[in-house]
UniProtKB/TrEMBL annotation:
One of its GO terms (molecular function) is peptidyl-prolyl cis-trans isomerase activity. It comes from the Bacteria. PROSITE patterns: PROKAR_LIPOPROTEIN. It comes from Gillisia mitskevichiae. InterPro entries: PPIase_dom_sf. This is Uncharacterized protein.
């Protein structure tokens, strides 16, 4: 009898604990995600306020000292430097509209030097140094040596090595260096004509409600950079540059999946799923241009037409 009573008591206690835990869980406050359109307006106001009250080291670029690193430094305008030109009034500052999630965002691009080398597309890869800052002038990231960024134009970018949308849309306005040389210690020195600039961006084109290390949720960000090299990307090596796999022209290649096999075309070696590799359904000419055969004349190139699967390079 005692054992029976003890067992019943244990069961009741367990039920009570579970009920309490459920009640505790029910009391957890769920913070709703902010409206993207409203947040975009708030972020833009914050960015404009920053641009009106800050300047960059303009004199360093006008008369570069020997060994100058061409890094942009921002500071706030106060009584001691009241003669400085606010960023908002700089002739080198421009705006660009970037649409994501049905919201038109404004980014601000400071183009100190465009760079004479090739410009990247929104789906290429770039080699650069960069520094990331919050609007309170706290740096959350700063490279010592250049790093590669991949720009696949994805909707969400949470992996290292992938640039947030606004960085991509800024870097396409710049070029890399015209050349480089390899030093005796195997380090690389780029010619002094690479792109130098910065982008001021709203949280909706960065991490939005997802806080990251040293970056609070809903933080507008600043990235300054020196763009050294550009690589035209063909992520799946099918002969078609990745930017050309953006079939709907929305500057996002991750949502173009012709055969609906969950692999976007830019990482799918058989875009139409007909069993013939994409590279065998196109012709890459000696001058680098690409011919897209349409054998049956239905307006759909062979590499996107599952009813056409001949190897055009074997003919």
């Amino acid at each position: 009898m005692r054992l029976t009573k003890l067992f019943i008591l244990m069961v009741l206690t367990s039920i009570s604990i579970i009920s309490c835990k459920k009640d505790d869980d029910d009391d957890t406050e769920v913070v709703p995600v902010r409206d993207r359109g409203e947040q975009a307006i708030e972020d833009d106001e914050a960015l404009i306020a920053y641009l009106q009250t800050h300047f960059y080291n303009e004199e360093d670029f006008q008369n570069p000292a020997e060994g100058f690193d061409y890094k942009i430094k921002f500071d706030s305008i106060d009584e001691a430097n009241a003669d400085k030109t606010p960023l908002i009034d700089s002739d080198l500052l421009s705006t660009k509209i970037v649409t994501r999630n049905e919201v038109d965002y404004t980014i601000y691009i400071l183009k100190i030097r465009e760079g004479v080398g090739a410009h990247p597309t929104f789906a290429d890869s770039t080699f650069q140094n960069y520094k990331g800052e919050l609007l309170n002038e706290i740096s959350f990231d700063n490279t010592t040596n250049p790093v590669w960024f991949d720009h696949p134009g994805t909707l969400t970018q949470a992996n290292s090595g992938l640039a947030v949308v606004a960085i991509t849309e800024a870097l396409v306005e710049f070029g890399g260096a015209s050349n480089f040389e390899v030093n005796d210690d195997n380090t690389v020195k780029f010619t002094d004509d690479y792109g130098v600039g910065a982008v001021f961006l709203p949280s909706g084109l960065a991490y939005f409600n997802n806080a990251r290390e040293n970056i609070p949720a809903y933080s507008p960000l600043i990235f300054s950079f020196q763009l050294y090299k550009v690589n035209q990307a063909d992520h799946d090596q099918d002969g078609i540059p990745s930017y050309l796999e953006d079939l709907d022209n929305d500057r996002i290649v991750s949502n173009d999946d012709s055969d609906e096999d969950t692999l976007p075309n830019f990482i799918d070696v058989d875009d139409d799923g007909d069993g013939t590799l994409t590279r065998d359904e196109i012709i890459v000419n000696e001058d680098g241009t690409i011919t897209f055969p349409d054998t049956n004349g239905n307006g759909i190139p062979n590499y996107l037409d599952e009813d056409e699967f001949e190897n055009v390079n074997a003919i």
